[in-house]
Amino acid sequence: MLSDVMEDYLKAIYSLQMEHGPPVSTSSIAEYLGKTPPTVTSMVGKLEERGLLEREKYKGVELTTEGETVALEVLRHHRLLEAYLTEHLDYSWSEVHEEADALEHHISEEFERRVAAALGDPEVDPHGDPIPSADLTPPKSAGLSTLSDHGVGDTLVVCRVSDRDPEELEYLSEAGVTPGTTIEITDVAPFGMVTVRVVDSGREQSLPESVAQTIRVRAPDEECEDESVSTV
Amino acid sequence: MLSDVMEDYLKAIYSLQMEHGPPVSTSSIAEYLGKTPPTVTSMVGKLEERGLLEREKYKGVELTTEGETVALEVLRHHRLLEAYLTEHLDYSWSEVHEEADALEHHISEEFERRVAAALGDPEVDPHGDPIPSADLTPPKSAGLSTLSDHGVGDTLVVCRVSDRDPEELEYLSEAGVTPGTTIEITDVAPFGMVTVRVVDSGREQSLPESVAQTIRVRAPDEECEDESVSTV
DNA sequence: GGGTTGAATTAGACGTGTCTAAACTAAATA
DNA sequence: TATTTAGTTTAGACACGTCTAATTCAACCC
């Protein structure tokens, strides 16, 4: 059996692989998980022995199919939980991440099935992240652009925001920039500071580039994964 | 912070204390948790250092108020989860125990509050066990009698069944002997074998003494904790 | 090509929770 | 009272996941 800790490593490596592609470096995993590099080296050795990843010494690491499947399983749990907590237990959009992190390793297959059923097998979680399907086949990467890829005057629909930083999440939730909302870019200042107008409310909001980079958007007429109904 | 394992020990000691009173022996804890006695001795030493229990060497162990509070917190989590899974996720009466055991250590205070609210602050779980209140004051022991305390002809209402043994639970669920149902004792055979008739369905069922001892009952007119609506 | 530098790995230690084997206690028996 | 016995504790080992300090590697630059 795989420990919680091992599952966390696999999930982290999967995320890093999605962001920057393989190989994933020891130090990036260490930073992501808040561990020291030697700890990561040691753990990565164990995961390699179990066939969950491949490793080239001093280069980095890449998940095997098996490792990726485990990561997707954990991610499915995480995102189903986020969706469930939001829809059925009245959690706000930005509160769910920690709770899901704590529970994701401890739910049974049965629980997973029942939660999915209660939600009607959703395809995205409240942040707009795609929920891996029950068969754990790798989801095709949507190839969405980022808010900072666009310029003044562009009208866009928010598809996804990052769930990594609770503060950022609170800020966006506050600002009304949530998956499914339409925004228009009204200004781009030096250093990438972006000002957007939320079309429904008319409200304007400035976002630092670091945040703008984590917001995935699409053109209003494009297809996209279903946005979740965000009920903050 | 207290580890999951420590919480499990405290919960076990609490249960054993409820059943047979203090002091609780090393070997009984070991058997309850499926550990060896030396392991228990070692753990009990650590719990004593933390002020969670008192210990007399070669005699046994008794929870302090602080230890009891921790046990009640875990028990509250466990029983709220059992109730929630049964009522909102369509779990059957006998399936919930394992799931609750896995989750009880990992839910937040916030989660506890929201689950309790979603259930309307219930006082008993689906097996009829009392759910400790949010302030974690020790529940007064209900002083219910046991099915094996009664004789032929007695008509009784089931208040509580033990949730320790999934097989037994399945058996009782199958037989329709659930909290809130009225039964009549139709026969008591040698070795304590008890035959009961479920009043609603008219069905008869024989129960070995070991099982009869774990079923808590009351007279039909007595007060009792609210029975849960058992929807198997 | 040799030196510098930043990242990765090895070495060695520690805390936690578990085990088996051996020693010890205390209560019951003779 | 001496002995047996059942149960408890101590001693010592091990796996896991983590750390710090020391070493090694690879890439880059003059």
TrEMBL record, chains A, B:
UniProt xrefs under PROSITE patterns: HTH_DTXR
One Gene Ontology cellular component: cytoplasm
Family matches, as InterPro entries: DtxR_MntR_Metal-Reg, Fe-transptr_FeoA-like, Fe_dep_repressor, Fe_dep_repressor_sf, FeoA_core_dom, HTH_CRP, HTH_DTXR, Iron_dep_repressor
Location relative to the cell: Cytoplasm
MF terms in GO: DNA binding; DNA-binding transcription factor activity; protein dimerization activity; transition metal ion binding
Superkingdom, taxonomy of origin: Archaea
Keyword entries, A-Z: DNA-binding, Iron, Transcription, Transcription regulation
HTH dtxR-type domain residues: 2-64
Chief subcellular location: cytoplasm
Membrane-traversing stretches: none
The family this protein is said to belong to: Belongs to the DtxR/MntR family.
Subunit: Homodimer.
Name of the protein in its database record: MarR family transcriptional regulator
